[in-house]
Amino acid sequence: MNRVQLLGRVGQDPIMRQVEGKNPVTIFSLATNEMWRTGDSEVSQGGDISQKTTWHRISVFRPGLRDVTYQYVRKGARIFVEGKIDYGEYTDKNNVRRQATTIIADNVIFLSDGSVRDKM
Length: 120
Prior knowledge:
6 strands, 8% helix, mainly beta, 1 helix
């Protein structure tokens, strides 16, 4: 089973891209955070709190969801994304083959008021 659930904050306003002959896609980045306490014991109050931020590339292909996401998701918004992981390759502008990991979103849930405002 290939299933992903992410809860985080949007890193940039979405963009919509369309390659000739293919359906459009809405793309944005999502930051997720992990926090943990360092020290001798998990239950102790001592120790420092450490944090790691991971950035994810989110792609939305579903027509209705793609359009709503493009129109209403904004940088800084807190959202929940469900989807699957897709691994691919591309050739960059220097003709170097690169690997890319993308989350293909099936569902996007808006969790903060900051995400819903008209696009200018």
